[in-house]
Amino acid sequence: MARNQTSAQKRFRQSEVRRMHNKAIKSECHTYVRQFIEAVHAKDSKLAQEKLVLLSSKLDSARSKGVLKRNAVSRKKSRMQKLFNVTFAAAN
């Protein structure tokens, strides 16, 4: 049975660390999305606005780190903004 080269072993370790780091960032983004949606369903426009700002910031941060792709971030931000506008349009 062939043994992995030292460089291949190092590559595996590096990719595993990166995978866990990226997973943590994605999970954090999912958490902010969930919190925003909960605020919208609770009809709390002030809290929802705060959560939307935080969510946009986290998505942009994930984009700059290369965890999420540009169009995916744009799509998510657009959908969240649309949800906010539709829900709270009658209140304004």
CATH topology name: Methane Monooxygenase Hydroxylase, Chain G, domain 1
The count of strands amounts to 0
Rounded mean pLDDT is: 94
Tell me the name of the CATH homologous superfamily: Ribosomal protein S20
Quaternary arrangement of the chains shown?
A: single chain
> How can the largest sheet be summarized?
none
Pfam family, one: Ribosomal_S20p
GO cellular component, one term: small ribosomal subunit
Function: Binds directly to 16S ribosomal RNA.
Protein name: Small ribosomal subunit protein bS20
Please describe what this structure looks like.
This protein is mostly helical and 92 residues long. It has one domain (9-88): Ribosomal protein S20 (Methane Monooxygenase Hydroxylase, Chain G, domain 1, Up-down Bundle). The chain is 82% helix and 0% strand. The protein contains three helices and no strands. It starts with 5 loop residues before the first helix and ends with a helix.
How do the strands and helices of this protein lay out in sequence?
Layout: H1 6-41, H2 45-64, H3 70-88
Question: What labels would you give this structure?
Answer:
single chain; 92 residues; mainly alpha; Methane Monooxygenase Hydroxylase, Chain G, domain 1; 82% helix
